[in-house]
């Protein structure tokens, strides 16, 4: 099959429209004339490599897609992509492992752009217990693990609102990246059954959407934070995210600490 490369001007215009930025606003922030930007978008002018990079930065285009802009303009990619086990990423890998280990006894995961599981700490087992083995087989996808009827979903007490939050995050990611693979994942996850209303309950006075999950006879409650690498110039690092789960109440915290102590005693 022959892949047709779309003109760089058309791609820039689509990214600008996706970001809901006018030509005037973009030209001011990128410090180019509106006339020249218009000529670039219509194909009447060819942008320089520096201009493509500048426009990509001001449009907040992901690094992977910035390379596509450069290729469409006839330039070599600027951002390299490495395997996570590449020696050049050793320092980053070590930092990720420190974060995961330091978060014990609470669960934490590392995911890539497509929500595939890259790494996790031991405490993630409190969330994945009972998940079908095929969902945990590599490449395991944390959204499938979370929302598939053979995954965590039957144990999630507030499945509707937690599902709505996850789908909202994925939908915003699709809008940000325009990635067809993520759009396919969104369509798949949306099709999973859910017998609860997919809305939150602000009357409870909560400050975040919690994850309420059953573990054995216990009912646990979590909130999470998401960390990314600051100012990455490498595609793999730019697409990694560390999601760390924290106990949303004292009961959950004590339960996890006791669970970790029991695990340590058994291993010792």
Topology:
Elements lengths: L7 H11 L4 H8 L3 H9 L6 H10 L4 H10 L17 H13 L5 E4 L5 E4 L4 H4 L4 H4 L5 H6 L11 H19 L2 H11 L20 E5 L2 E10 L7 H4 L2 E7 L2 H18 L1
TL;DR of this structure?
The protein is α+β, with helices and mostly antiparallel strands. It contains 13 helices and 5 strands.
In N-to-C order, the SSE pattern is HHHHHHEEHHHHHEEHEH
How many strands?
5
Fraction of residues in H or I helices: 40-55%
CATH topology of the largest domain, anyone?
Beta-Lactamase
Per DSSP, what share of the residues sits in E-state strands of 2 or more residues? 5-15%
The rough form would be described as elongated
What is the CATH class of the largest domain? Alpha Beta
CA-CA gap between termini? 58 Å
Strand pairing plus helix content: what structural class?
alpha+beta
* C-alpha-based Rg, rounded: 22 Å
Oligomer: single chain
Number of helices: 13
Low-confidence stretches: none
Count of separate structural domains: 2
Described by strand count, sense and barrel closure, the largest sheet is: 5 strands, antiparallel
CATH architecture of the largest domain: 2-Layer Sandwich
Pfam family, one: MLTR_LBD
GO molecular function: DNA binding
Organism: Amycolatopsis acidiphila
Protein name: Helix-turn-helix transcriptional regulator
């Amino acid at each position: 099959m022959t892949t047709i490369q779309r003109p760089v001007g058309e791609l820039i215009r689509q990214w600008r429209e996706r970001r809901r930025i006018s030509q005037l606003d973009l030209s001011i922030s990128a410090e180019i004339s509106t006339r020249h930007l218009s000529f670039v978008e219509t194909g009447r002018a060819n942008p320089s490599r520096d201009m493509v990079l500048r426009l990509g930065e001001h449009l907040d285009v992901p690094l992977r897609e910035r390379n596509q802009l450069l290729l469409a303009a006839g330039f070599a990619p600027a951002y390299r992509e490495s395997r996570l086990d590449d020696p050049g990423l050793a320092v980053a890998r070590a930092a990720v492992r420190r974060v995961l280990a330091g978060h014990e006894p609470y669960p934490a995961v590392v995911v890539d752009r497509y929500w595939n599981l890259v790494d996790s700490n031991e405490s993630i087992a409190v969330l994945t217990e009972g998940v079908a083995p095929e969902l945990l087989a590599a490449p395991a996808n944390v959204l499938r693990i979370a929302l598939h009827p053979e995954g965590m979903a039957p144990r999630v007490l507030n499945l509707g609102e937690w599902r709505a939050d996850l789908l909202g995050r994925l939908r915003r990611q699709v809008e940000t990246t325009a990635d067809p693979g993520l759009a396919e994942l969104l369509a798949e996850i949306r099709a999973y059954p859910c017998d609860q209303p997919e809305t939150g309950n602000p009357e409870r006075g909560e400050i975040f959407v919690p994850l309420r999950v059953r573990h054995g006879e216990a009912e646990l409650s979590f909130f999470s934070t998401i960390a990314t690498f600051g100012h990455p110039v490498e595609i793999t690092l730019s697409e990694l995210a560390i999601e760390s789960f924290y106990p949303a109440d004292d009961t959950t915290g004590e339960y996890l600490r006791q669970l970790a102590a029991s695990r340590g005693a058994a291993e010792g």
